[in-house]
Write a structure and sequence with these properties.
Layout: H1 16-52, H2 60-64, E1 74-75, H3 80-90, E2 94-99, E3 102-108, H4 109-118, E4 138-139, H5 144-154, E5 158-163, E6 166-172, H6 173-197
Parallel strand pairs: 1-2, 4-5
Antiparallel strand pairs: 2-3, 5-6
Helix pairs in contact: 1-6
C-alpha cells in the first residue's frame, strides 16, 4: 500500500500524528477489503446453494405467493390485433391463449414481430396461427432454478404456471432473476451485519 506512505507536507510520516492518521486509514481500508471479500464469498456460496443447498428447494410458490395476481389472458380464436391491443394496454410482453381453463398456447411480442415481418396484413388473423403451441408450462412445485434452466434452454421469457391443468400464474425470466438477486443480497447483508457485530 505505497500510497499511504506518500505525504506532500514537509513533516512526512516522521510526525507521530501523521503516522497515526496514515495507519488509521490503512486499517480502515483493510477492514473494508476483508468485509468486501466476505460479502463476495457469501454471494458466491449463496449462488452455489441454488444448485446444492436449501435454495435448490425454492419453488414457483415463492414467486407467486399465497395470493397470485390475476393473469391477463386471451381466448383462442381472438385476432392478433386484439392480442396486440391487450399487450399494449397492460404493458406486458406475452399473453396466454386460453381454451376454456386450459392454456392452449402463448403469444409473445416476438411472435407478433415475426408475423409482421412476413405479412403486415396478418393482424386480422387468429392468434392460433401465431401463438407458440403447445405452451411450455411449469407446476407450482417447480424449483426456481429448474424454471430458469428451462427458460434458458428453450429461449423463452415467460412461463405459465398451471395446477391441475388450470392457469394459476405467469412468471417472466425477470421475475426469477430478481428473486435470485434479492436472495443473494439478503444473505450477503446478513453476513455483513454478522461480521460488523463480531
Amino acid at each position: 500500500m505505497a500510497w499511504c506512505c506518500m505525504d506532500d507536507s514537509p513533516k512526512g510520516l516522521d510526525d507521530p500524528d501523521q503516522a497515526a492518521h496514515a495507519w488509521g486509514r490503512y486499517r480502515n481500508l483493510l477492514a473494508w477489503m476483508i468485509l468486501a471479500a466476505a460479502i463476495c464469498a457469501a454471494a458466491a456460496i449463496t449462488g452455489m446453494a441454488h444448485l446444492q443447498g436449501p435454495l435448490h428447494l425454492v419453488t414457483m410458490f415463492a414467486i407467486l405467493g399465497n395470493d397470485p395476481v390475476p393473469v391477463v389472458t386471451i381466448r383462442r380464436g381472438a385476432t392478433v390485433a386484439q392480442a396486440v391491443e391487450l399487450l399494449a394496454t397492460h404493458r406486458i410482453g406475452a399473453v396466454p391463449v386460453m381454451e376454456g381453463e386450459t392454456v392452449a398456447g402463448i403469444l409473445s411480442e416476438r411472435d407478433v414481430v415475426r408475423l409482421l415481418a412476413q405479412d403486415r396484413a396478418a393482424l386480422d388473423g387468429p392468434v392460433d396461427s401465431v401463438m407458440t403451441a403447445p405452451a411450455i408450462t411449469v407446476g407450482r412445485a417447480e424449483p426456481v432454478i429448474g424454471a430458469l434452466s428451462l427458460m434458458t434452454r428453450r429461449r423463452i421469457r415467460h412461463l405459465p404456471v398451471v395446477e391441475d391443468g388450470r392457469l394459476i400464474g405467469l412468471v417472466s425470466i425477470g421475475d426469477l432473476v430478481k428473486y435470485r438477486i434479492d436472495r443473494i443480497e439478503t444473505e450477503a447483508a446478513a453476513m455483513r451485519d454478522y461480521i460488523q457485530s463480531a
